[in-house]
Write a structure and sequence with these properties.
This is TBXAS1. One of its GO terms (molecular function) is thromboxane-A synthase activity. Cytochromes P450 are a group of heme-thiolate monooxygenases. They oxidize a variety of structurally unrelated compounds, including steroids, fatty acids, and xenobiotics. This protein has 516 residues and is α+β, with helices and mostly antiparallel strands. It is 53% helix and 9% strand. It contains 21 helices and 11 strands. Strands 1-2-7-4 form a 4-stranded mixed beta sheet, with helices on both faces. A 3-stranded antiparallel beta sheet has the order 3-11-8. β1 and β2 form a beta hairpin. The longest helix is centred in the middle third of the chain and has 32 residues. Bound molecules: protoporphyrin IX containing FE (HEM). Protoporphyrin IX containing FE (HEM) binds next to α14 and α21.
Length: 516
């Protein structure tokens, strides 16, 4: 009797589950949106096994057109490379699309005390963003030029040693060390010495955090397949995080110590941390409308970042500042060694703007801002390699109609950045080729605002863009002022990429430096 009862309950649950799934899997059919056929349990997740997300998106774009839907387990994701549709979502209707995509083993950002700006939503995001924005103003950037310059000089010492010995070396590895030391120093006064110490603890831990983003695929898969059991996956994830050594905890502890020391010493440094500790939040200064979200005036006017927010933000800047900028620099060097004519043209521009040596940094910022060809090379590299493309996504917070498509509340919209960047209608023929002239001032004026998205789009676009650009351009100028570069035999041409938190060169960028 009991067995029969249990079988009946089991069957009932299965039928309910089956019906629910079937209904969910009809989402895109009901919306009249094409897409790959989903599997009942996995949705379309199996398509990503052994294949990067961005390449799968490209493949589907060829088959289903510029707007299609797929399923992560039962969760529908709308993918689009339609720049008009994306403009409406990321810019015009931001009020309905102010949240990012949340992952299956991630605590609800609205409940998470440790949430940082990247995942925060609504009013909390607005408060965090307006505290941080001034840290990236032109005047702040000018103030940190000497610190960046000091770190680039350390990089030049290593390049010089390799050039003297005539040996090739991995430029990507050196750039990771440079960008980590720079953000640690400019951001928090943390003395990371990864350029001078091979196994610097901070570097090792940052690398491990990024590497860990590709671990535990089974748990992620289960989370995607059965989002209803979200709390269970989080609990397992947290247990796993605590039983093995966790580089995030090491970094978090380091940040907490720095924050404590700074508060105690009342030290007045010019850096990101100081700004976060002292700035006032003015709710009317940032008029971005994020809709009907709780706005507790008392808390907000005091501006204060909680200790948890503060250490989460520091960790975010450390990781974001190091990973993305170094990868961009690596791709620039790759393009310069495989396109020697571009390298030469850029060197001519550098020699023109910096006829003497480059040790007086006082005018650096304004000179670099006037270097047009450098800007063109920077932009074209990021067109060819939009390395953070997978995070350019938004969640719909309230059902609304965009460009004739009714998007239900909760649906994720993913920008298909690679297809946009390789679309001949937007960029002309030969989008596989590296042609900096696509970015002449004239051509930039007439381009669609969503055609170039390496830093995302709309009010949630990358906050660190100026810092990345300044550091990246300074490094390129100083390297090419003193050296020419040629590819090593070990360099992959065309370059092979792998996808983790970002899309990075699989085997680094090995090359040889020749003193000019
Ligand atoms: C070339 C280097 C970089 C690239 C390609 C890059 C790319 C991106 C992208 C694609 C986004 C998502 C934007 C969106 O969803 O619309 C983003 C957001 C963000 N980036 Fe960057 N980034 C870079 C450098 C940096 C640096 C140096 C920092 C800080 C030190 C930084 C901090 C952030 C933060 C905090 C966000 C979240 C912004 C928000 O949600 O309001 N990034 N970045």
């Amino acid at each position: 009797m009991l067995t029969e009862l249990l079988v009946c309950i089991g069957l009932g649950c299965f039928t309910w589950f089956y019906r629910q799934r079937r209904l969910q899997m009809e989402t895109f059919k009901d919306m009249n949106i094409p897409g790959p056929l989903p599997n009942f349990l996995f949705g379309n997740l199996l398509s990503f096994l052994g294949q990067s997300l961005y390449l799968t998106f490209r493949k589907w774009n060829n088959i289903y057109g510029n707007t299609y839907g797929y399923f992560e387990g039962p969760t529908p994701v709308l993918v689009s490379s339609d720049v008009d549709l994306l403009y409406d979502i990321f810019v015009k209707q931001f009020k309905n699309f102010h949240a990012r995509k949340v992952y299956p083993v991630q605590v609800d950002p609205d409940q998470d005390e440790n949430v940082h700006m990247f995942f925060a939503r609504g009013e909390r995001w607005r408060r965090l963003r307006s505290i941080v924005n001034p840290a990236f103003s032109t005047s702040k950037m000018k103030e940190i030029v000497p610190t960046i310059n000091k770190r680039i000089n350390e990089l030049l010492v290593i390049v010089n040693e390799n050039a003297k010995k005539k040996i090739d070396f991995d430029m990507y590895d050196l750039f990771q060390r440079l960008t980590l030391d720079t953000i640690a120093d400019c951001g928090f006064g943390l003395k990371s010495e990864s350029l001078t110490r091979k196994n610097d603890e901070c570097l090792v831990n940052c690398r491990n955090v990024i590497r860990d983003t590709t671990k535990r695929p089974i748990l992620f898969m289960l989370g995607f397949m059965f989002p209803t059991f979200h709390a269970v996956w989080i609990a397992i994830y947290n247990v796993l995080r605590h039983v093995t050594f966790n580089p995030v905890f090491w970094l978090q502890d380091t940040m907490t110590t720095i924050i404590k020391e700074r508060k105690m010493k009342q030290e007045q440094r010019v850096d990101l941390l100081q700004l976060m500790l002292t700035s006032e939040f003015n709710p009317s200064a940032n008029k971005i409308d994020v809709g009907d979200v709780d706005f507790n005036d008392n808390v907000v006017k005091k501006r204060i970042l909680t200790n948890e927010e503060l250490s989460a933000m520091c960790l975010l800047f450390l990781l974001a500042g190091y990973e993305t900028t170094s990868t961009t620099l690596a791709y620039i060097m790759y393009e310069l060694v495989v396109n020697p004519d571009v390298q030469l043209k850029l060197q001519n521009e550098i020699d023109h703007f910096f006829p003497e040596d480059m040790e007086d940094t006082s005018a650096f910022y304004s000179i670099i801002s006037r270097m047009e060809y450098l800007e063109m090379v920077w932009c074209e590299t990021l067109r060819k390699f939009p390395l953070a493309s997978t995070v350019v996504a938004r969640q719909c917070m309230e059902t609304c109609t965009v460009n004739g498509i009714t998007i239900p509340s909760g649906m994720i919209v993913q920008a298909n950045v690679w297809d946009i960047h390789y679309n001949p209608d937007l960029w002309g023929e030969d989008t596989e080729r590296f042609i900096p002239e696509r970015f002449t001032a004239e051509r930039r004026k007439t381009r669609h605002p969503m055609a170039w998205l390496p830093f995302g789009g709309g009010p949630r676009t990358c906050v660190g863009l100026r810092l990345a650009q300044l550091e990246g351009k300074m490094a390129i100028c100083k390297l090419l002022k003193y050296y020419s570069f040629i590819p090593s035999d070990r360099l992959d041409v065309p370059i092979k990429c792998i996808e983790g938190a970002t899309i990075i060169p699989k085997h680094g960028v090995p090359l040889t430096a020749i003193p000019r």
